[in-house]
Amino acid sequence: MKKIEAIIKPFKMDDVREALGEIGITGMTVSEVRGFGRQKGHTELYRGAEYMVDFLPKVKIEIVVDDETAERCIDAIMSTAQTGKIGDGKIFVTAVERVIRIRTGEEDANAI
């Protein structure tokens, strides 16, 4: 099993969700996060004073899938979240040792 974490631009969330739904992904965790990388930040004007905004709004998607589905998920995220501009985000893929559904006690693939 793999855990896929994708940090994307907020306005791309609906497109990514649709693309993942089309390949059969029925569940995910989505968080509103803030951060920066090469994009750095930007300056804004507030009441006549200029200040630096270091952390930019992003959306973090977390999905746990079987090994066979992982590559299709990555491709779906890449194709829909990419704008070609700086700040498109990142995808992190890690191995998952064990998954347990709390309600039923099901484990691993049955718990996904």
UniProtKB/TrEMBL annotation:
<keyword id="KW-0597">Phosphoprotein</keyword>
<keyword id="KW-0804">Transcription</keyword>
<protein>
    <submittedName>
        <fullName>Nitrogen regulatory protein P-II</fullName>
    </submittedName>
</protein>
<keyword id="KW-0547">Nucleotide-binding</keyword>
<dbReference type="InterPro" id="IPR002332">
    <property type="entry name" value="N-reg_PII_urydylation_site"/>
</dbReference>
<comment type="similarity">
    <text>Belongs to the P(II) protein family.</text>
</comment>
<dbReference type="InterPro" id="IPR015867">
    <property type="entry name" value="N-reg_PII/ATP_PRibTrfase_C"/>
</dbReference>
<dbReference type="InterPro" id="IPR002187">
    <property type="entry name" value="N-reg_PII"/>
</dbReference>
<dbReference type="InterPro" id="IPR011322">
    <property type="entry name" value="N-reg_PII-like_a/b"/>
</dbReference>
<comment type="subunit">
    <text>Homotrimer.</text>
</comment>
<keyword id="KW-0805">Transcription regulation</keyword>
<dbReference type="Pfam" id="PF00543">
    <property type="entry name" value="P-II"/>
</dbReference>
<dbReference type="InterPro" id="IPR017918">
    <property type="entry name" value="N-reg_PII_CS"/>
</dbReference>
